[in-house]
Design brief:
By secondary structure, this protein is of the alpha+beta class. A hairpin with a 6-residue loop joins strand 8 and strand 9. It has 2 domains: 60 residues; 154 residues, Distorted Sandwich (Glucose Permease (Domain IIA)), CATH 2.70.70. Helix 1 packs antiparallel against helix 2. Strands 1, 2, 3, 4, 5, 6, 7, 8 and 9 form a 9-stranded antiparallel beta sheet that branches. The structure holds zinc ion (ZN). Zinc ion binds next to loops.
């Protein structure tokens, strides 16, 4: 009897482990393909449909809570830290998600931290500035080993898929990444620290900032979505004291 219970437990555990692995495996596949796309080493006619079908599979395998609250993406920061005037930093010019690293315009918002000495720390607190997830989602892409000399613009980026809104959230130039592929992240929780990674973002002339692009993937090409109104109504997150 004891051994039957034990066998049953192991079987259930095995199935659970397998399910987890399968979902994570899909995220790893998405990540590998996206990284190739970023470096231009894959034909985008192939990668585009494949990324979309992988995202569909991921959506079927991983449940994400449906929540419509938006959080401001950096702790202790708010609207005055967003680049441009009233969201004018967003310039969507012929952007095509599938062009990877070689894109034009600036279909995103930059959110700046006070880091005059460019040491990746907030000058006021001498602590990292934490990037928090703007919405719930699944971690499907990341780079954690960017080094200077690497031509990738996004540096240590993080890609979070929100299957309910059908959007990709691309957080770029991070210093460190605090989540793993396949993780379900809740809105307002820490996912990275703000940094200076990426070809241009690492240059002295670039003030330390988070580059956050949102892609609406109901559009075939992954159309950049101007989420400024959502930043305006977003909930501010304060660091725990
Ligand atoms: Zn930017």
């Amino acid at each position: 009897m004891k051994s039957l219970a034990c066998t049953l437990f192991l079987t259930v555990a095995h199935v659970l482990a397998q399910e987890k692995t399968e979902a994570q495996d899909l995220c790893e596949q998405w990540n590998a393909l996206y990284e190739k796309m970023q470096y231009g080493s894959v034909d985008r006619k192939t990668s585009g449909p494949l990324l979309r079908s992988l995202a569909k599979e991921i959506r079927d395998k991983i449940a994400v809570p449906q929540d419509s609250v938006f959080y401001f993406p950096i702790e202790n920061h708010g609207l005055p830290d967003v680049g441009g005037t009233n969201g004018s930093g967003f310039i969507s010019r012929q952007y095509n998600f599938l062009h990877g690293n070689r894109h034009r315009g600036h279909p995103a918002h930059d959110i700046f931290i006070h880091d005059a000495d460019q040491d990746n720390l907030d000058d006021n607190t001498k602590q990292p500035a934490y990037v928090v997830a703007m919405t719930d989602g699944i971690v499907i892409g990341m780079k954690t080993n960017w080094t200077s000399g690497d031509t990738l613009r996004g540096g240590n980026y993080l890609m979070v898929y929100n299957p309910n809104l059908q959007r990709y959230y691309y957080y770029a130039h991070n210093h460190t990444i605090l989540v793993k592929l396949g993780d379900v992240v809740r809105a307002g929780t820490r996912i990275a620290t703000v940094g200076r990674t990426g070809r241009n973002a690492s240059e002295k002339r670039s003030p330390t900032h988070l580059h956050l692009m949102v892609l609406q993937i109901t559009d075939e090409k992954g159309k950049p979505y101007n989420y400024y109104d959502e930043l305006v109504k977003s909930k501010k997150v304060n660091s725990p004291s």
